[in-house]
Amino acid sequence: MNVPGGDSSVLRRLNTAAVLRGLRDGGEPTLTELAARAGLSRPTTEDVLADLAGRGLVTAAAARQGRGRPARRYRFHAAAGHALGVGIGAAHVGVFVADLAGEAAARHHAVLGHGWPPAERLAAVRTAVRAALAKAGVERSALWAAGAGTPGVVTADGRVARCEVLPGWAGVELGRVLGRALGRPVLVDNDANLAALAERWAGAARGADDVLYVLAGEHTGMGVVAGGRLHRGRSGAAGEVGVRPGLGLSGPADDDAMVHGIAGAALALDPEVVVVAGAGDRLMETLRRRVRPLCVTPVRIEAAELGADAVGLGALRLALDHVERDLFRV
């Protein structure tokens, strides 16, 4: 790959990103196959592999049996680091640890008291994080990134600006507290946002680029994925429909309110799929029957698949996305 007039450091990063993408495409390619995937010469690919091996990101795969001398094959070393996701709810916390390819290493759940003050809740969250890391056999220093999900409006620096669900939770600097416990920055986002991310990754909205997630369980909220990216709004408050009564999706709602609230949001956002959490079979049938005719384009309406794990898994996906941006940064 040539960058006319560009400096050598940019060229190195471009070549490294190309080889990493070739490795992440799957399988165990030979040097020749990987060079073809990356669009690079064999010598350049070999140099990049040597650098990646020195960083622990690539290993040689076991030779395949066959005639003659087998070609050396390579694979991405996903166990070179780990990511962690924390989902904090009113009554529970879930912690998930995975390698750099997203393969689960451990999970841990713990019960929380709904009325616990912030200090007690945070202490329980830190204990759950330590337990999950111990189960995975992963040291804090091996974490490349961490994410956390919480009810409420979350600022860019990880502070809970507003929360209607947990007493005293507004004002908690969650990113700073967890970052101090883990010895690294922690990405923090709203629970419905991260649940939307999780359902797109491993749940009812797999592969969809435009997703509306409706949380109608212990509290109400929405998460939006638009064009494959989370939509947080100007100040992180996008989807916080639960903070105002009379909007159709705030507090306990009858079927009519749910139908019109979801239809209105679907008309505004034009999603490929609407994922609803906390609705029973009867309500899901009602939503499918009545919301679709109100939309101007076809929309799938699906029940959420990930349950109480959604927020923690979304936080894990947030952390993994951060790792991938760093790996492929040019």
From TrEMBL:
<dbReference type="GO" id="GO:0006355">
    <property type="term" value="P:regulation of DNA-templated transcription"/>
</dbReference>
<dbReference type="GO" id="GO:0003677">
    <property type="term" value="F:DNA binding"/>
</dbReference>
<feature type="domain" description="HTH iclR-type">
    <location>
        <begin position="16"/>
        <end position="59"/>
    </location>
</feature>
<dbReference type="GO" id="GO:0045127">
    <property type="term" value="F:N-acetylglucosamine kinase activity"/>
</dbReference>
<comment type="similarity">
    <text>Belongs to the ROK (NagC/XylR) family.</text>
</comment>
<dbReference type="InterPro" id="IPR036390">
    <property type="entry name" value="WH_DNA-bd_sf"/>
</dbReference>
<dbReference type="InterPro" id="IPR000600">
    <property type="entry name" value="ROK"/>
</dbReference>
<dbReference type="InterPro" id="IPR005471">
    <property type="entry name" value="Tscrpt_reg_IclR_N"/>
</dbReference>
<dbReference type="InterPro" id="IPR036388">
    <property type="entry name" value="WH-like_DNA-bd_sf"/>
</dbReference>
<dbReference type="Pfam" id="PF09339">
    <property type="entry name" value="HTH_IclR"/>
</dbReference>
<dbReference type="Pfam" id="PF00480">
    <property type="entry name" value="ROK"/>
</dbReference>
<dbReference type="InterPro" id="IPR043129">
    <property type="entry name" value="ATPase_NBD"/>
</dbReference>
<protein>
    <submittedName>
        <fullName>N-acetyl-D-glucosamine kinase</fullName>
        <ecNumber>2.7.1.59</ecNumber>
    </submittedName>
</protein>
<keyword id="KW-0418">Kinase</keyword>
<keyword id="KW-0808">Transferase</keyword>
